Amino acid sequence: MASDAQPPDRPLVRPFVVIDDFLPPELQQHIWLYFQVENFARVDVSSPTGQWSWHDGAALRGPTIGYKTKWHAKYPTGTAVDALMETLVRQEERLRPALGRYEIDWDDFSASPSLYPSGTGLSWHRDAETNAGSFVYYVHPQWNVEWGGELMLGDPSQMSIPASHGPFFNPAPVESEDDGASWLNSHMENQRASDTLLASGVGSFVMPKSNRLVVIRGGLPHKIAKVSVAAGSHLRASVTGFFKRTASKLIR
Ligand SMILES: [Fe+2]
User: Which residue has the higher pLDDT, 49 or 119?
Assistant: First the structure.
C-alpha cells in the first residue's frame, strides 16, 4: 500500500486495524476452553439501559478484567485471557495506526469475555470519550459467512459527530447542554441517532473470523449485526475491551 511509505514521524491514522491469526492456535484453544468453564450473565441484567436496545436480545458477558486496575478482576487472573492481554501489550506497535502508542496515548485496558447467541447483537454507538479505542478478539473455533455477527463500522466522517451528542448520538435537552456529553441512551428513542447516522449511511464491516483481532479507534460509530438463525447453536465468542486514554491525552 502506497500510504505505508509515509515517514515514521507522520504515522498513518486508520479508523480500524484487522490482524488475522493473532494468537498461536494453542492459546486460542486455551481461551476457548476457558469460555467453557467461565460464568456468563445476560448483559441486560447489569446494564438495562446501556448500548443494548430491547430488540438486541440478551448477549452474555463474563467478568471484566483490568490490566492495571481492578474491574471484576485484575490481571494476572491465572486464566488464558492473561496471554491475550500480554500479547496486546507486546504487539502494541501493530495497533498504533488505530490506537496511538502504549503508555503515551493509552495505558490501562479491559478485557471481557462475551457470547452472542443466535438472535443477539448490539445497536449503533460509539465508546466513551475516555477510551483511545477498543478491541475484539474472536475466540470461536469456526465461523461461517452466513452466521452474521459482523462488526459494522461507520464512515470515518462520522467521527466528527459532536462529542456533546454522547455515546448514543442522542443530544441531551437544551437546558442540560452545559453538563458535557449527553448521558441519554437511544434504547427507547433513537430518532436523532438514526437521522445523524443516516446522513452518510455508509461504512465498513468486519466478519468475525476465528482468531482475528480488530482494533477500532475511539469515536468511530459501530454496531454488531445480529447473529443469524443460520448460526444455530454456534455462539459468537469474543474477548472485548477498552483501551483507556492516558490522562489528558486526546487523539481524536
Ligand atoms: Fe463499543
Answer: 119
* Domain that includes residue 198, residue range: 13-241
- Edge-to-edge strands, sheet with 203-206: 122-125, 222-224, 151-154, 203-206
How far does the centroid of ligand 1 lie from the alpha carbon of residue 148, in Å?
17
What integer pLDDT is reported at residue 224 of this predicted model?
97
Ion ligand 1: protein residues whose beta carbon lies under 5 Å: 127
* HSE, side-chain direction, 13 A CA sphere, residue 128: 9
Compute, in angstroms, the gap from residue 238 CA to the centroid of ligand 1.
13
Task: Say which residues have a Cβ less than 8 Å from residue 87's Cβ, sequence separation at least 6.
Answer: 22, 23, 27
173 belongs to a structural domain = yes
CB 95 within 8 A of CB 214: no
User: Average pLDDT of 227-238?
Assistant: 98
Q: How far is the CA of 134 from the centre of ligand 1 (A)?
A: 7
* Distance (Å) from CA 7 to ligand 1 centroid: 31
The CATH number assigned to the domain holding 132 equals 2.60.120.620
How many domains is the chain built from?
Answer: 1
7 occurs within a structural domain: no
pLDDT, tens digit (0-9, with 9 covering 90-100), for 129-161: 889 999 999 999 999 999 999 999 999 999 999
> 197: part of which helix (H) or strand (E)?
helix 191-198
Q: Please indicate, yes or no, if residue 197 is contained in any of the structural domains.
A: yes
Alpha carbon of 146 to ligand 1 centroid (Å) = 23
Residue 203 counted as domain residue: yes
How far away, in angstroms, is 121 Cα from ligand 1 center?
Answer: 12
Distance 55 CA to ligand 1 centre (A): 17
